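Example complex used in Figure S2.
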Amino acid sequence: MKYMKFLKYGTIIILIVTFASCRKDPQPIPEEITNTLFPAEPNAAVKGMYVVNEGNMNMNKASLDYVDFTQGLYRKNIYNQVNPEVTKGLGDVANDIGVYGAKLYVVVNISNKIEVMDVKTAKRIKMIDLVNCRYVTFHGNKAYVSAYLGKVGDPKAPQGIVAEIDTATLQITRKIEVGRQPEEMAVVGNKLYVANSGGYSPPNYERTVSVIDMDSFTEIKRIDVAINLHRLKADQYGDLYVTSRGDYYDIPSKLFVIDTKTDLVKKTFNVAASNLAIDGDKAYVYSTEYSYITGENTISYSMINVKDETIIPGSFISDGTDKKIKIPYGIAVHPVTKDVFVSDATDYVTPGRLYCFGADGRQKWSVETGDIPASFAFVYKTN
Amino acid sequence: MLWVILTTKMIRTRIAFRGDKYCFYAFLAILWCHCIRPEPLFAQTDSLKKANELKEVKIRAIKLSRRQTSSTPLQILSGADLEKLNSLSVADAVRFFSGVQLKDYGGIGGLKTINVRSMGTNHTAVFYDGVPITNAQNGQVDLGKFSLDNIEEIELYSGQKSEIFQSARGFASASSIYLNTLQPKFEKGEEDHFKLALKTGSFGLLNPSLLWQHKLNDRVSASLSTEYTQSNGRYKFRYTNGVYDTTAVRNNGDVERMRVEAGLNGVLPDSSTWNAKVYFYKDQMGLPGPIIGNRFDYDQRSWSKNLFVQSSYEKKITDAYRLKALAKYSNDYTRYLDPDFVNLDGLLNNRFHQHELYLSVANQYKINSWWTAVLSGDYQLNTLDANLDHFPYPTRNTFLLALATQLHFDRLDIQANLLGTFVNDKVKYYTAAGNKQEFTPTLMLSWQPFEQKEFRIRSFFKSIFRMPTFNDLYYTLIGRTSLKPEYTKQYDLGFTYAKLFDNTLLRSFSLQTDAYFNRVKDKIIAVPGNNGFRWSMKNLNLVDIKGIDVNMQSGWSIAQELQLNMGLTYTYQQAQDVTPGTAYYKNQIPYIPLHSGSLMGGAQWRNYSFNYSYIYTSERYNQAANIPVNYVKPWYTHDIAFHYNTLIGKNKVRLTAEVNNLFNQYYDVVENFPMPGRSYRFTLSYQL
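Predicted assembly (1071 residues):
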């Protein structure tokens, strides 16, 4: 009788321990689809828009989402399902995205790689190693990627570089040293412009834009602008809009205009600018400016007429949705509908949100994204 | 109503207990009986063995009674139990406590901090021989740096130590760990004790240690403890999603550590006691980073040095009045090198230097046979220097004043205290956090409702806070001086049952169970500045924690020479983010499992002993949103150890072989920081 009892209770305990100890079989995390956000447009010229989510540092949570305009749906976290064989997925801190020809490029900063995918399927074509890479731009069948450091572990090499990648062979063909911690780039005419930040050596920030001649692939000039430069966008009039982050203390963030004919600063807007998107004659600017003095973020939205170089009064968000956006983190303008996309990084460690605003500034729809939605790339019918 | 519930509960416990007796026996029998095929080589002399057994029984009894009468939940690991655990450091050992989550970055060098009852790492104070170890910079004490080599006992109190005669600092944390080192005790005629030990095994571990205790005269004894640890930190880890399946070797996990500790213990002619200690610790190690896409290897390094001197003095001035004084000076240095971060000065090379001065006086006055009052006052000075841009060089003065009282009756013990905290921060540059003043109460009670001493009910309420650390306030990239302290309120109700038996299979049994509710208010969290590299600290979250801790221990005597023991802990914790307006309201907070527990069993037969332990942690989420991408798998490890004790001449020799993570489960405690798979450790210790 007693013996039966031990067996009974003994077995129960062993079963509890065993059952409590179940681990699910590992499997790739599937994509999530959100339907009925907006009507499908099967013949849209702009088929879709990729959204890349940075993911918080060290969390390996970079992810790729896709807005499908032709089917009217949002596909969240598509990379893992398409590329389940890639160890640890897209990686850590996807800083930039770009579409060129039939290929999609994602620059993954902490993972030291450029992920090259098929633009239609997001299937990996190749991975290109580049340490501490930041932004990508394209010109003449070449991709140009900025990287914070040319060499790691050399105390005498604080300079950054720009690497040139052949978009057919996907090999790095040339590298050029620029300023310290280079950020965004743009090509105007036959010149590549690179915004240098110097962010690793505060308060000794860089304050220049490097000008690179594309034929000789040499740095021909440094344009003095302001400290800690970040964004650099070209308009259709041969001007560059460059943002300065300031020093987070006394020197505020500002927006500068460089004339590429003279390669000089021709105008300064006393407008704080974290990021901007230029579409036609309009630049859409937002700013999340942090101050160590107040310990607060100041968020603002503004518009600039790039033809006249004047501030357009008002904001591109008119219905009060801006109050809901905690940390605006990315911006894009639909080339056809002129809808404005603004992403919200919320608190950086929970899923973000993508908002779509009509040209009237009213919210059309919004959707949950991956963590820290940061950059966008449109896909055309022709891609 | 409460009365009825408790009574029924007790009766049920007793009934259940009768059946359980056999089930545990069966369980143990199934697990271990067939594993032991010993053949003694040397036998201990009968008298020595008996003396040891008696000592062991006595220790067990004292421990049992301390655990039982504590009005705050107390868990103890000491002496023989500590030796039996598969543990290298204090961090490994505390995993066997209920209510505890160890945040472990993996490997011997990886940061290991303790989170008690989900309130956060910064809410647990660590005391080394009764004197607090603090880190004003980040508020965290790396328990992986404390080896078990010279530790006699680890005590964990939820709430605070259930004793009013203590430093004001003792009242000042939401939970406390006391690390008590081996104290010299000499039998008649003995003048020296030596203990030499050598540990080796996986990860290129080499860990020799020496302990020397010497009796200087009848009133003073000295001790010296030193050890050296070296490990290459290399171990295999594996990640898979079912399609990719990658195994690699952890890099940059090498660590080298050295510790020297010397102390004097004395009794003065007026029978007051004193001790003094010098502690020096030095390490250098690689900092293995997260395993992320396309990047497994890192080259960051850190160096640290820590020196402290501390002293305590205790005197009974009159029959009613007792005095205790503590003093400590501590000097900490840390250097961090990041070759991936090249600036105008070369590689990023941060240096941090901390000083601390601590003074404490506690006065106890016994008003009458049942009423005692204590007044304690502490002063602490902390400074931090760093070679960072825009660094403010903060200095913090902390005054703590505690007024405590205890009413002690035959079957009821009530303790209450009020703690006043006065903090003043000064900085050389920029803005200081200024002055802070808080008064926080604690109320604790322990009650024996029946004639029988075995069953007691206890309860406590404690309100306390933690100050923002220097990093929270002043660190150039993230600090924010307007932060408020992070407050906790704890409500606990539990019972203890403990009984010793003679001449039965079951020799001792104890059970403690507590249900609790904690609220953490103004939780300090990092929130973004204007980009991912710039964060700022904010008081944001409100967290509610509802939990149950169970801790069961039993000792069995199966035959004359076969002893078994078994322990079981279980923790249920619902720790939810209830911050108003949060998008993930009532989601479980990151890294807190709903269920966790451990199982320990040991068998001793003649000179041999065998130990088994199992640790289980259920699924968790690594970020605030409880969604699939944030899911972290459960993990569970089985560890076993064989010990062999013998005598060579009069000297004790002990051989231990351990296998940790027997079934080679690959898991992460912290996402992307892999833990080792199966590993081995061997210990040879020689005592003379």
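Chain B is about 10% helix and 55% strand. The first helix of chain B runs from residue 2 to 32.
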